[in-house]
Amino acid sequence: MLKSATPNETQLAYRKALEAAIRAHGTTLDVTELVAITSHLVGQLVALMPVGLMTEAAALDLVFENMQQGNGEVLSNLLKSEGALQ
């Protein structure tokens, strides 16, 4: 299992830029298309990793763990906002 880390400023800026792109195209692409296109890009990034940096299984674990973390953050935020409305 990979260690979780707090993102630094550069990493947060990159994530915010990706989020902005998703918001910009979210009105013309549905969520399934956004996931498919973004997943394709992730696959390309994994292919660009230096040989020997990590195994394919470790790279997929990294992707999966980050997907779970991102999903959990959205669900947590939704629950918080629903709680605030009640």
Largest sheet descriptor: none
Structural class: mainly alpha
Number of strands: 0
Compressed to H and E, one letter per element, the order equals HHH
**Spatial extent as radius of gyration:** 15 Å
| Percentage of residues in helical conformation | over 70%
Count every helix, treating DSSP H or I runs of 4 or more residues as helices: 3
Mean pLDDT score, rounded?
A: 89
**How many separate domains?**
2
Strand portion: under 5%
* Broad shape: globular
Whole-Å distance between the termini?
38 Å
Show the helix and strand layout.
Layout: H1 9-25, H2 31-47, H3 56-85
Describe this structure in words.
The protein is an all-alpha fold. The protein has 2 domains: 7-48, no CATH class; 53-86. The protein is built from 3 helices and no strands. It has helices spanning 9-25, 31-47, 56-85.
Question: Which short descriptors sum up this protein?
Answer:
mainly alpha, 3 helices, 86 residues, 2 domains
Short description:
With 86 residues, the protein is mostly helical.
